[in-house]
Amino acid sequence: MKHTQASLSFHKKLQGKLEIRSTVSLKTKKNLTLAYTPGVGKAVEAIVNDPQKVNDLTIKQNCIAVITDGSSVLGYGNVGPEAALPVMEGKCAIFKEFAGINAFPICLKTQKVDEIISIVKNIAPVFGGINLEDISAPRCFEIEKRLQNIGIPVMHDDQHATAIVVLAGLINATKVVGKNLRSCKVVIVGAGAAGTAILKLLNYVKIKNIIILDSEGIISKSRQNLPDYKRELLTISDPNNIKGELEHAAKGADILIGVSKKNLFTKSIIQSLNKNPIVFALANPDPEVLPSNAKKWGVKVIATGRSDYPNQINNALVFPGFFKGLLESGKTKITNGMKVQAAKAFASLIKKPSVDKFIPSIFDRRVVSTIAKQFI
Fold it and tell me: With CB atoms 3.0 to 4.6 Å apart as the test, which of 154, 209, 360, 361 could cross-link to 130 if both were Cys?
C-alpha cells in the first residue's frame, strides 16, 4: 500500500516523467536565424546532398524510439497503449539518465503485426535505433525479425537485454556456488519473449541441459499442437525428453529461472533442486518467490527483477549501454556474439562475486561505458 500511494502521488505530481527541451537558447535573433529560417535551410540542403549527414546535423544520431503496443506490460499483460505509457516513459528516463541518450515513448493503438512494422519503418528516419518493448509473443519475434533491414538497429529488449543480464548473472552466480555453468541443469519457467531469448542465448554458450516450460508444463516432444515458435525450441531444450509439470523439471536442477508469475516457486519446488541452487525469480512486479523464503528453503543465490531487493536482474541494467554502443559504433545489426560480449563485460565488473553481491547495480556508473565500449 505504501508503494502504491507513493507511486501514484509521484506520477500525478510530475504529470509525465519526460519533457522536451531545446538544446539551444532562442532568446537572440542570431540563434533563431541559425536554428530556424533561413539558417536551417543549409542543413536541409546538406542532407539532400548527402543523406548520411542527418546523423551529424540532427537529433537522430542519439535518439531511440521506445515502441510498444501495450500487449505484454510488466506483469499486467495486455493492458493497451495508454496503460503502457508510464512504463515507456520510465524506459526513456533511464536511457537519458544513465546513458545520455534521448528517447521517446511511442505507444501504438494497434496490435496488428503488419501495421506495427509499417509504422516503425515509416518513423525510422527520426531515430538512431528502435527499442521494441512489452510486445507479446509470438508476434514480437516476427516484428523484430522483419525490421532488421531498416538501416538502424532494432532490438526487443524484453528478449535480448533480459537474456544478456541473465547470462551475466549466471556467470558470476556459478562462481559463488563453485559450479561449471556449462555443466549445470537449467530450468526456465516462462516461454514468452524473455524465456525464449534466455534459452537461445544459454544454448549459444554451450549449455546443453536446459528445460523450458510454459503454462501447460514442459515443452516436450510429447506435447501436441505446439505453435511453431515453441516447436522450434525442442531442438535446443529438454535433451532427455522429460514430460510433465514444474515439479518434474525442477528435480535436481542447479539453476531455476522464472520469467512467469508470482509465487510459482513453492517450498517443495525449491527443495527439490540440487544442492546450493541458484534461483532467478524475475517476474515483475512480484517475483516467483520472495528472497526471504528462497533463502529459508535452501537457495544459495537468489535474484529478482526488482530494484528494492539486492542483486536485481533486469533489462534496465543492459539496454542503456547496449544501445549507446550501437549508436556510437554505427552498427545496424545485433548478433549473439555481441550479446555474449556484453554479458561477459558486465559480469567482469564484480571482481569477487558473493551471495550478497554478484551483479552490479544500475547505479554503478561503470555499467553503461563498460557495455558500450564492447562495440566501439
Answer: 154
CATH code 3.30.70.100 for 37-156 = no
Active site residues: 36, 91
Q: Which of 4-13, 218-227, 264-273 has the highest mean pLDDT?
A: 264-273
In this chain, the answer to whether the domains covering 37-156 and 161-304 adopt an identical fold is yes
The grid cell for 323 is 544501445
**pLDDT at residue 2, rounded to an integer:** 57
CB atoms within 10 A of CB 5: 9
Architecture of the structural domain at 161-304: 3-Layer(aba) Sandwich (3.40)
Among 106, 159, 150, 129, which residue's Cα sits nearest to residue 320? 129
Pairing between β-strand 210-214 and β-strand 217-218 as defined by DSSP bridges: antiparallel
Q: What is the pLDDT of residues 348-366, one digit of tens each?
A: 999 999 999 999 999 999 9
Which residue from 92, 283, 275, 110 is spatially nearest to 188, judged by alpha carbons? 283
